[in-house]
Amino acid sequence: MKNICFLFFVFVTFYMNAQLWQHVDQEKSLYRSSLTNHQKNPLLDNYDVCFYFIDLEATNLNKTISGKTTIKAKVVNQPLSELVLQLHSSLIVDSVIIDGLQVPFTFSNHEIHATLSQPIPINQYFTTTVYYKGTSSGTGIKNGQSPSWQKKVTWTLSESYHAMDWFPCKQDLNDKADSAYVFITCTNNLKAGSNGLLTNIVTLPGNKVRYEWKTHYPIAYYLISFTISEYQEYIQYAKPQGYNDSIFIQHYIYDTPGYLPYFQNQINNTKPFVELLSDLYGLYPFHQEKYGHCTAPIGGGMEHQTMTTLSYFDFELVIHELGHQWFGNYVTCATWQDIWINEGFATYTYYLGAQYLLTQTEADQWMNTNHTDIMSLPDGSIYVPFASIYDEQRIFDYRLTYQKGAAIIHTMRYIINNDTVFFGLLQSFLQQFAFSTATADDFKNFASAYTGIDFQQFFDEWFYGEGFPTYSIYWNQQNDSVEFTFTQQTSAPSITPFFHNPVDIKFSNGTQSITHCITPQLNNQTFRVYVPFAVQSISIDPQNYIVNKVGSITSVSNVQPISIISLYPNPTNDKLYIQSNRAIDHACIYDVLGNPMPTNINSECSCIDVSSLPLGVYFLKINYETHKFIKTQ
Question: How many domains does the chain have?
Fold first, then answer.
């Protein structure tokens, strides 16, 4: 009876976690909102970090740590007379050593300021060691117990601003360390997992042991980690096609009866996942070291480089976090505004896993749900506004950063319309920015150059813009020709009044079908296409490549001619003239916030006096169409 009750509790806990956060990185949206908004000190720009060596003693019972962190760095920009390091003020700093000499320092407001007696010249390397201890009140280090498996765990989770909660560092995305060592001393009944390879296990007095982990790949500050618990080790080897060696996969999972049998099938998926993504994205970037997992009660997963921390194993969570090893770790977002580089691609990785390893139906069902969730609200951009770069709830907004981030990658794949080119683009982009950082604009520009397709307008509308379109069709068939007017209404018209992406239109009669791709350039645009049978039904975007709703599909006796409207001159500082091949019923000007602007429009609606408008971008709504113009001096 005890075993039956225990397994039922395990299942309920697992199911609730899975349903609550839909297999995404729960920790990124839960406890990390407690960040102290700490603006970057410009003195941090006076050196580049080359190497972190974190040597700590810790336990799985609490958050107390003690030890030292050594940093090797290079002086840049100007001679270094004052060294600034970031560390949570709840910890205690015993001393600071620079190049073998103890130096005076101050420590407040999460910063260590160490004063040098002689400035270090530009381009010279230096080494600093900070001795410290204490129990951090920051959220970058946590302690808890698995509710299902009753194991105590201490773990770190530093994204996005919380590495300083447990080791002195420089929190700058664009300053990756070339390598890192993480040595963890704990009691010998525990194991400590971290980045890279376990190079040594040293037996120490007092029933203690030191785990010595070393990684020689470039690593961002927030991807350095450790976990401590009562673990058992489970080993796999992946063998990607075309790679002459195997890739070591090392799991640290709870050392308790029942855990491995319960999750073994899901854990074993790691091997085919590594092999699949090595084929789609290029060889696993850290193949000379390892991939692996450490379990901790975090409610989701965090993609620590070479050793993800997660709370359970299932298909979506495991492949999402593995996808981050390419998108997020190999190539890291250059700013938190560009978190799409990390999370959009990792989320889309699940779609690819479902498509290639499950069924196309399951992949399509997931994308359909994804689109429905995106359209539950009318606005919001994937790009994180500058004002929100310290708002972790906004950075890791599931609907925008994850779901819509994945959706536009799917749309780009449709626009490219050639999987060889699409996956070639991803592999080439990763190689171009390997072990470095990239912005969304970097990807946009690279994609445009690689494919020959200009993605500027697409990014303006789908990445920087907001909302989604609702498409409608009015159609009429004459013999083997269908003429239809295609319209769209957007959910955030004051920000993104029109989406110019191509759309598939499918015509069917129950037994036959034909699909035509159109690329609308303006609203109420009329198209004529060949359909060699009597149409009974029409569907818009039948393969669900685009985030959209369908308004109405209506058969009419005739279709209005294409509406052609032009504004000139644009930009203008005085008069704005309107030319149209259809009657204009009304016209109104709005600013970028959607506020109507007082203007003088002549009775024929052919000329507008805009001289009184402030400089800026405006939208002119004519009938049911919206056009943009710029007011200059």
Answer: 4
